[in-house]
Amino acid sequence: MVRPYRFSLEEFLKLPLPERGVELLEGEIYQMAPIGPRHAYAVNRWNRVFSSLPEVFVQVQGPLALPPDTYLEPDLALLRPGDYRERLPRPEDVLLVVEVADASLDYDLTKKVPLYAKAGVPEVWVQDLLGGKLLLFRTPEEDHYREQIWVRPGERVSPLAFPEAFLEVPW
């Protein structure tokens, strides 16, 4: 019987892969689509918005390890302050993940969001560039989020970790 080989996080991190553009989801390697101008602009806008928050480390398109067999590169992650020189951020370090979806909406919603929930990431925002809205996922429970809220550009939202910070959803 022929079976695909499933990689552990440790094995994946040792592979000679390109520096960006691949993720490991439950042992399977996925090639990511190239980042286009709309996607890059949206990520840069979110970075600017979140950089004003106190006591947070804003990580742009960096690694997030979900042991034992998942390695993601969310577009943006708000991390608890800490020293990440010797280890990759893990779910307990994450306050919020933002995924910007141009052509990747289905992948983000059906593959990545359930993994974030399963890992206990408290909040995930998915910006749907084609649909012109932002989907907030809150309260992880098993492989899903109990709360899902659609927000339009121009409306104001607050991350759960920063309820006093009302941020305008960029477009």
Essential attributes:
single chain; 171 residues; alpha+beta; tt1808, chain A; two-stranded antiparallel sheet; 3 helices; globular
Plain-language structure description:
The protein has a 6-stranded mixed sheet with strand order 3-6-7-8-9-10. 27% of the residues are buried. By secondary structure, the chain is of the alpha+beta class. The protein contains 3 helices and 12 strands. The chain is 20% helix and 33% strand. The chain starts with 8 loop residues before the first helix and ends with a strand. The chain has a single domain (34-168), classed as tt1808, chain A.
The first-level CATH class name? Alpha Beta
> Which percent range fits the helix content?
10-25%
- Can you tell me the CATH topology? tt1808, chain A
What is the number of helices?
Answer: 3
> How many domains would you count in the coordinates?
1
List SSEs in N-to-C order.
HEEHEEEEEHEEEEE
List the helices and strands and how they pair.
Blueprint: H1 9-14, E1 22-25, E2 28-31, H2 37-50, E3 57-60, E4 64-66, E5 70-72, E6 76-79, E7 94-101, H3 105-119, E8 123-128, E9 133-141, E10 144-151, E11 156-157, E12 167-168
Quick structural overview:
The chain is 20% helix and 33% strand.
